[in-house]
Every structure is written in structure tokens, then in C-alpha cells.
Amino acid sequence: MKKWVSLLLVSMMAMSITVGCANNSKDALNGKATNSGEKKSVETKNNKEITVYTALEDDQIQAYLTSYSTQHPETKVNIVRDSTGIITAKLLAEKDNPVADAVWGVAATSLLALDKEGLLEPYAPVGLDRIQDKFRDNAETPKWVGINAWETALVVNTVELEKKNLPIPTSYEDLTKSEYKGMIVMPNPASSGTGFLDVAGWLQLMGEDKGWAFMDKLHENVQAYTHSGSKPAKMAAAGEAVIGISFGYRGITEKKKGAPVEVVFPSEGSGWDVEANGLIKKPEMKEEAKQFLDWAISDEPMKEYNKNYAIIAVKGEGTLIPEGYTKNPLEQLINYDLVKSANSRDAVLAEWSKRYDGKSEPKS
Amino acid sequence: MMHSRKKTQSYGVNERHQVVWLIVLAILMFVSIGFPLFQLFRKAFIDSKTLELGFSNFITYFQTPSLSHSIINTLNISLWTTAISVVLAFIFAYAMARTGIAAKPLFRYIAMLPLFTPTMMHGIGLTYLFGNQGLFTTGFFGWLPFSFDIHLYGSIGIIISEVIYTFPQAFLILSISLAVTDYRMYEAAETMGVGKISQFFHITLPSVKFGVISTCFVCFTLSFTDFGAPKVVGGQYNVLATDIFKQVIGQQNMSMGAVVGMILIVPSICSFIVDRIISRKQQGTFTAKSTVYVIKKSRMRDLWLTLYCSLISGCIVLLFAAVGFASMVKIWPYNLTLTFDHYRFYNAAGAGLSPFFNSVTMSFYTAIIGTAVIFFIAYMTEKIRLFAPLRQLLYFLAMIPLALPGIVIGLAFIFFFNLPNNPLHFIYNTMTILVLANIVHFFSVNFLSATTALKQLDKEMEQAADSMNVSFYRTFFRITVPMCMPAITGMMVYLFVNSMVTVSALVFLYGTDLKPASVAIVNMEDAGDVAEAAAMSMLILLLNLGVKGGYEGVVALINKHRSKRSDKLRIKANSLNSIKDSVGVDAHV
After folding, report:
1. Which CATH class for the A151-270+343-356 domain?
2. Best residue in A227, A243, A257 to probe B by mutation, most B CBs within 10 Å?
3. Which 3 state secondary structure label does DSSP give A77?
4. Model ipTM?
5. Which residue spans of chain A are classified as CATH 3.40.190.10?
6. pLDDT tens column, A68-115
7. Which residues of A248-275 are buried (b: 16+ CB within 10 A; e: fewer)?
8. Which chain B residue's Cα is nearest to A53?
9. B66 with A357: Cβ contact below 8 A
10. Which fold has domain A47-149+273-327?
């Protein structure tokens, strides 16, 4: 028995060490030629495998992808999912050596920022003519194409409000009232796309000065800034917060699950952004990536998007208003200049961090 | 003549093999420890824009108040944690070592529980107890007439979590310090009529002062570098470890990450140096003439301390029970119907159960390969007679990880392995890099326990084998490995358990398909899927307890079967284990 164990140990060790040696010698051989070597390995992998970065919600991705995998069973899609800010930062960091082949469902403001760095390759997916002008890059061969829009919504825990005998807030202005002190949670705009559209939306809706003044007041009432845009809704649903500044879909799903929440679309209008797709510029762009982008705006996935979002990018009558949304979702959106937001993204985030990040916790 | 012939003889086949091995091992260790650390230093000291060498990154850091403020926050957390944890653990350890209270094994096991879970779990437990909808905050959902709100999110929450995290580690070191004492001192004091309290201050405390100092440093370092708890209950209270995460993952600002990493190493290095000094000084306080401490009867003392230990154990059990309960209710706190839905990780931000199995695979490889490599390196530094400079170099490299918090290892690994022109770039985002990071992370602790075990073997065995021209592989596998089996299996369990719970290094290194369970917990918590995060923590806890329990069971069985002869050996093995535990405290940062 002992012999057997030690034999196992030996072989394991020998293996690990020889592997280490083998690697070393191989490295020595490859030496400077690494770059080409790397490409080669990608090439062999190229074989029907694509890497897609996305900021879509975890609970949506699988449902969306079913129709892709039935249409293209031969292609393996590696999904890298994180919050919008993280995905954006990741793509920017990898800009000299991109890993992603395509981005899918990432905020248009982020894609515009990526475009500034020359990361996007123009591509007109099949069926582009069906997409509303508002929801795509207006160049003839667009660099980004939207799939749906998402918008600010307040997710309000009615049980907790009742306990505290407070009314349901209906507007942004309400949120700054002192009675809601320490009850509000909102996403950090640096990491969360929803957080960014809130902040950028306020700045465009109210104007720079008034916007920051509003956020100063709001900050007094904020209990925490979260990493993701979903978390405020989930915290409100769990009563950890009373009001979560989140987005429509997340609030509605929490309500459907049975949490005591109301989804409020603020009376001043909702900030919004487009979840959009794009092709990553790299030495070898794969056909499969383009195929994926074609699929991503085709009928089947659009139907799936529409189950979750009231506003989808295709023109036409057929769009449904999912349960829980206000009657006229388009009217709820504020007038919003995506390009302007994207251009000021860095400055806005820096200003926001300076004002609100890293202060000691607000006393609740 | 004789002399020179002896010399040529000693450079025989064995020696040639040995020197090759030593060189190979040194290269391996340079690649996995030396080079990554060098990259980290480079990143920190080279300006990210002008590419000049200097302190410009540090200057930027200290000129950004939102960042540099974190240093004060982190110091604040660590000092409070250290003070509270050391006092609580000291009393607990005292009760275990120096009193006659009942149910000691039970108390001991409960005190160890936090070692088997990721630190996020302590934070999650606290949110269910003291969060805005916690059991205590709501007075058990209003069943109780009273309730209290401790304003968990922020420094208070972090401090409580860190105390839970550091408590078992502090308890372990202090237990060992308290176990080793010379009873003759107490007898002398007794005959001179010195009172109990005076005895405590003049004999007990001085005799454990080194243990207490080293405990303080360990607690300080652990809470200074922990990432899991502040992530969950930190609220808007920024600490260094969460800053690194935000800078590196959130903004891909590598230089700032490296600067924070450098700051994080400072206490670990101090702690490391102090520990070295202490371990040198401590030798000799306990001599062959020392007698074992005799526990005197005292009902009052035992009563109070039983109460105390029950309280502490109760708190720990309550915390874990809260996580277990919360992972099984539908919607906390509004719908307390029991369900296993959260264990299906359906729709949660963690990609189902696969992270759990990724972690199991990773921990298994870490345990097997790690133990083999570490033990072999320990053997080569300890048992070979020649090539002293090479062996010292190996020893030095082997001790470095003791001063490296996991988060720093993770960072150094991205910097090194992600260099586009690094020939080892291909291991980036693979299982290999995760296993390698874990082995490096837990290297020194296991290296020390392997060395201790090897030291206890008689050197003459190797010498005899060598003089009979037996190949050193044969000696190694036929004699050394079997003799050290208790230490080897102990290392395996240690590596497995710690790989399951660690998050700090992995959070920077995992590939898309290979998300470990501990990282999944962080992601799920980030997305607000707290019940699922709780469920994943429970799975890790249960598996770890199973592994550790199974191991202890097997060891107990084997010991039972052995004859009386082995009693001595067993004691040795036990003391070895406790030594390992005591040095092991630095590991799972």
C-alpha cells in the first residue's frame, strides 16, 4: 500500500517536473518567435470557436444562445460576461492583443469609447435595414448595432416603506428628500453600465451644474454604491435597501419572483442606453464572429430580447411590451445624446469618483 | 591521496543527478516566484506613461485622496481586529490549555470552523444576522420584542468578519505557546506564596510573550490583506485589498494595482522578520528539565471559562447556521419557505455548479502536485550534503511566499504571465496557472512542515545508503517518503482545504471556463445573488469538513491499529501537525 502511494507520488512529481522542463525547453526554442507561435495556436483554435464579450445579464444569456447553438451547432461560443465597466476596461486593456472576437450586448456608450481607441471594425450584419436609426451607429457600415435599449427604473420595497410610513417615490426629485436618508442604493458608474447611464442621463436631463448638485444631494441619502446594476434591485427586493436605482428588467424579474417591490419609472423620464454589438478589429477576424453578429439581430433572438425589454432595436409594429413596463416605453426615455455621453465618459467618471468614491461610509 | 579519492567518489552518479535536480528546481522557482515578483516591482516603480524609473506612481497614489485614505481605513481595521482577536483567542486558548473544562474537543473543533470557508462566508453570515434585514436587526423578524442595529456595513462589519477569520489562527498559535511551559516556575511561586493573579502576570504572560507577539503580527497581516470580507460587508468603506480589485479588474489600472500591492506587502515582511527573530529567541525557554503543566481544580474558573467558550462557540455556530438557513429559504426575509432552489444556481451569476467542480479539480491538482513538488524541494534543501550555496538559494526562494499575500501573488502572476512576449503566456487563463498560484501561495507553510518532518529523520540513513551506493531516488522513495507519510498526507489535506477557500490570487487569474467556486461567490455577491453565494459557501464548507474529517478518521483508525510502540511516533506526528498549523496561519490570505 505504502509502496503504491509512493509510486503514485513519484509519477505525479516526475510528470509535473518534466512538464515544467518541457515547457522550459520549448520556450527556449521558441524564444523570440513567440508572437507568431501565439497566432498559430489561435489559428488552430480558430476552428469554429469564437470568444464573445458581453454585459448582458447572466440569467438571459443561456436563453438567448439556444437559438444560436441550434442554428450553428458547429461553433463553440466562449462567453465572457461581466459588468459593463469591467468589460470595457478589459477590452481596452487587451487592445494590443485582443482576445474577444465580438462584443454582444455592451452599452453603446462603451462601444463608442472602444471605437475612439480604434478597437472596432465596421461591419454591416445581415438584416441591418431592420434596425431603427436611433439604435445604431449612423455610418453606412456601422461599427455598432443595437439590440435593445434599457432604462433607469427605481425598484422600491413596499413592505419596508410601509413600515417606515413613507410614500413611494415617483421622481428623481423625491429621492433627495431627507426622509429617504440611508435607504437608497445605486450602482457605481465606473463599473456598471446602468450606473453610468443614470449619471450621464441626469447630467443631460438637468444640465451639468444642476446634475451634479442633484447627485450631491442624492449622495446624502445613498446607503451604498454597488458594483453591478442588478444589485440595487436585488437589495431592494431583499429589504437590505429600501430603494434601488436599477433598470426595468431587473426590477420586474424580482417582482415576478415574489419580492415585495414596485418598479417605478421616474416622472422626469429615464436615462437609457443601447445594448449593442460590434466586431473587434484584430489581425484575423473570423467568419464565425460575423455570423454571430448576423444572428444576434435576427428574428429569433430579437423575440427573446423582447421578452425582457420593452424597447428593441428592430423597426415595426410587432414589438411587445413585456409585463410590468409602462405603457409607452419610448416616451419614458429622456432625450439623450449617446455620443456626447461617450465622449465625456472619462471626465464624468473621474469627477464622480472624486466626489463620491472613497468617502467614509455615510452614517445610516 | 585518500582524501582526494574520497572526493571524486562523492561526486558520483547520485551527486550529478542531485545537482541537476537542484538547478531544475531553482529554475522552476525563479519562474514561479522570482520573475513574477520582479515584474510587480517593475510595474510599481516604472511610470505608466513616461516609462521612467522612480516613485511617480507612488506619488500619484498618495495624491489621490480616495486611494490613500484606504491606508488609514485598513490600518484602523487591522488594529482593531488584532486587539479583539488576540484577547478573545488568548482566553479561549487559555481555557483549552490550562483549565479543566469539559467538552474541550468540541470547543476546539468549533473554533476551527472558520478556517474551512472563504472569508466571504463570514461576511454573508453577518449580513443575515446584522444586515438591514438580519435576524438581530429585525428582532428575529419581529418575534422578539427588541431588536438592535449595529450598522453593519462599513468598518464594524469588516472588523467583526476579520475577527472571525483570524480567531482560529490566533487560537492555534496561542494554544501552542500556552502548551509549552515549565511547571516548576508555578511550583516555586506557589511555595513562595505568590497569588494566582500575580502568577498570571509574572509567569504565564512572560512565558507566552513571543507567541502573543507573533499572533499579533499574524492577525494584523491577515486582516490587512483580506479581500473577501470587505467586499461583502465593507459598504463604502474602502480598504487596500478592495482598492486593488477596483483598480486592476475595474479600471485595468495596473500601475496603481502594483502600488497598492507593494503597500500590502509591508506588514507581511515585518511579520516575517519578527517571526524569524522570535523563532530564534524562543529556542531554549523550554528545557529537558521542564515539567508539564498540571491543571489544578477550580470550579469557579472552569464555570466562567465554560460560559465564555460556549458563548464564543455559540457565536460561530450561529453565524454558520444563519448562512445555512439563508441558503435554503425562498426569499429572505419575506418568504421563509424552505427550498433547495438556490443550490441549483439557476440563473445566478456564477454559471451553475461548474465553479464548484472547477475548484475541486484545482484543489485536487494543487494537493497532489503541490505536495510532491514541495516535499521534494524540502528534501533537496534538507537532506543533501553538497552544493550548499544552491541549497541556500532554494531555501531562500522557498521562504519568500511566506511574506506574500495571495492578492499580491495574483497580481505578480498577471504581470509576468500576461506579458505578450513571455513564452509561458500560454498558461494564462488555464488550470495550470491556478494550480501554480495556489502552490506558490501555500508554499512556505508546507515547505516548513516538510522540513520539520525531514529533520526528525536520522541523517545517518541517507549517509548509510549513500555509502552503500544506493541510488538516492531509491533512498528517497523507499525510506524518506514512507517515513514522512503523516506529514505528506497532512500537507495534501492542507493544500486541498486552502485551495478550496482561497480567492485572493485566483480572482485575477481564472479563465472564462474555469471560474473557481470562491470567485463565483464574489461574482454572485456582486450581482446581488446573495442566497446563491451562501449556498456555494455551504458546499465548500461541507466538502472541506468532509475531507478533513475523513482524513482525521483514517488517521485515527491507523493509529488504533498500530501497536503501543508507535505511541511515541504519534505524539511526534501530533506535535508536528500542531507546529504546521501554527506556521500555517500565514497561508490562507
Report:
1. alpha beta
2. A227
3. strand
4. 0.78
5. 47-149+273-327, 151-270+343-356
6. 999 999 899 988 888 888 888 888 878 888 889 999 999 999 999 899
7. bbbbbbbbeeebbbbbbbbebbbbbbbb
8. B512
9. yes
10. D-Maltodextrin-Binding Protein; domain 2 (3.40.190)
